[in-house]
Amino acid sequence: MSKKVDPLALSNQVCFPLYACSKEIVRRYKPFLDPLDLTYTQYIAMMVMWEEKSINVKNMGKRLFLDSGTLTPVLKKLEAKGYITRTRSKDDERNLIITITEEGENLRKKALSVPAAMGNCVCISQEEAATLYSLLYKIIGGFDDLDEE
What we know:
CATH topology of the domain at 11-111: Arc Repressor Mutant, subunit A
CATH architecture of the domain at 11-111: Orthogonal Bundle
Largest sheet: 3 strands, antiparallel
Number of strands: 3
CATH class of the domain at 11-111: Mainly Alpha
Mean pLDDT: 93
Low-confidence stretches: none
Shape: globular
Distance between the termini: 40 Å
Order of helices and strands: HHEHHEEHHH
Strand order of the largest sheet: 1-3-2
Radius of gyration: 19 Å
Oligomer: single chain
Strand content: 5-15%
């Protein structure tokens, strides 16, 4: 006789280890981000800025999977720190453009050690990390498909 699987058992939920892992990863970033005076959300926003240099809020929100209610206070704090500027588009006043400042670019040099430091905190190989990355984005992509239906 086979054992019946309990659909509500925590041990049968893929969401729980994802949640716990995400929470722990963000916690592990803190000692590396504190000297930069960045929260994790500010850090990922700056990662987009280091890559894009200038982007509108809507596209940044899409890149980070954050709504404007979450993103706006993050961007205001980054602007107050002098890392970005927020300006209205001349073509469309509703469009808010985020642009990295020289100070924001200089912060990148200080942040270069963060990925390697975090890599030392995670006990998986680069190959396993690449597989995990691929699987997580497969899940995220599936949500996009469901939203379109």
